[in-house]
Known about the structure:
- By secondary structure, the protein is an alpha+beta fold.
- The protein has 3 domains: 21-199, no CATH class; 201-322, no CATH class; 323-409, no CATH class.
- The protein is built from 13 helices and 15 strands.
- It has helices spanning 10-37, 47-55, 73-89, 104-120, 129-140, 146-166, 253-262, 268-280, 329-338, 342-347, 354-357, 365-373, 399-405, and strands spanning 58-65, 91-96, 99-103, 173-184, 187-199, 203-208, 211-217, 219-222, 228-231, 233-235, 246-252, 284-286, 292-298, 301-311, 314-322.
- The strands form 4 sheets. Strands 6, 7, 10, 11, 12, 13, 14 and 15 form an 8-stranded mixed sheet that branches. It has a 3-stranded mixed sheet with strand order 1-5-4.
- Strand 6 (203-208) and strand 7 (211-217) form a beta hairpin.
- It is elongated and about 85 Å long.
Amino acid sequence: MAKRKKKINTTNLQKIGIAHHRNEFISKIKQLLDDVTDSKISQYLPVHVLENIYNLRNHPVYIRAADGQKIPVKIIEEFRQLILQALKAKTVKLGFGKVDEMVAYDFFTYGITLATHWQDIKASDYPEALEVKTKLAPFGAMIHGEIFTEIWEYYIGMANALTLMFGDLENKMYAVKHVTRAEVDGKVGMRFCIDVYCFETEKINVTIDEKNRPAYRVGWLMSEPMPHFDYIKVELATDKPKLNKEYDVYIQVHALDRLRERIDNVFVGILHVSMFNSFKNLKYCKDTNGNYLFDFTINNFKVGYFRGDIVEDKIILRTFLFLINNGTPEYEKLHATTGLKKEDTIYLAINKLSAFINSDIASNDRAKEIFVNAGCESLFGVDKNIMYVEEGTKVKTNAELILKYLKLT
C-alpha cells in the first residue's frame, strides 16, 4: 500500500525561503566587499555583523498610497513594476576594485547597504574592523559623491516621470514624494519609499452658444512642499480696460480631444503638463476673427494653439489647432505660398504632429523648406522620443507626395 505523502507545512516553507534569501544576500554582500576592495577582507566580518547588515539592508523600492489617499492597488502595483523595470535597465559606472559598473537595482540594494555599513563601522566592533573600514573607504565615500547623485537623480526622475504617464486632467492627477524610512509596518531596514498622492482638478459647466458644456481647470499637481494644484492664471491685454485682469483658465473636453488627436501618439500626461508649461510662459495672438490663440509648446517648440474666449469671467479654451490647421498664422502663410487648403493638408496627411516627427519630411530639404518658410520650423525640433510608436512602425514617406502634389518635382 502506497505511503501517504506528508502535508507541506506552509510556515516551514516560509522559514526556508527567508533563510535562503538571507544566505544569498550575505553571500552577495561579501562578494561585493571583496570585489570593490580587490581583497579577501569579507572573511573578517563576524556572523553577527553580517546578520546586522542583512537586517538593516536597504530596500530600493517601496511604493504606497500616501496616508489618507485612496488609490487603486492596481495603480500602485503598476508604479512599482515600472520603477523596478527602470532600475534593472539602468547601469551605473563605479570603477572600484574589480567592479567597473553595477545595475542600478543592485546598487541600491547591495551598494548602498555596504556604503551605509562602512559609515557605521567602529574599531570596537571586531578585531579587524579598522582594516575593513580603511579598505572600504573609497567605495563607502561615494555615497556622498557624483556617482550617488547621478543614480539618485535618475531614480527620482523615473518616479516623477510616472506622474506624466498616469496624469490626466479629465480623470486623476498624481504626485509623488520620496521619504527614507528606517521602519515600515514594524519591519526594520532602510527603505526608499515613494508616497503616491492622487487628486482631481476642478470641473465646472459653462454655457457657450446656449449649450451647457463641461470644462476642466488648467493646472498641474505639484509635489512640493506638499502635493497641491498650481492653477494657471493669465493676464490679457485687451481693448477694454475693465477686461485687463487675471483670469482662471479652463479647457473644454472638445479641446482636450482635439489635442490628443492632433498631437498624436504622445502620453496624455505629457500633453497636459506641456499645456501647463505653455501657459506659465504665456504667448498669444489673435486670429483674423479676433479670437485669442494661445501658443502650445512642447519643450519650448511651438506645435499649435489653443483657441479661447473670455466667458463668464474665465478664459475657456474651446478647441486646439495643430500649427498648420486652418485658422493659425502659419496656415495663412502656408496657404499664401503654396495654395494648400484644409482639405489638401488632410489628403497629404500632414495635419498631425506624427507627420513631421515620424516621416521623411525633415530629411528632404525641398519638402522641409516649404514648412520652414511658413514659420513651422519648430515642428522639426520636437524630440521624437516623446512619442510612443509601436515596434515595427515604418517611417512615413510622404515628402515626395507633397512635392508632386505641389508640382515641385
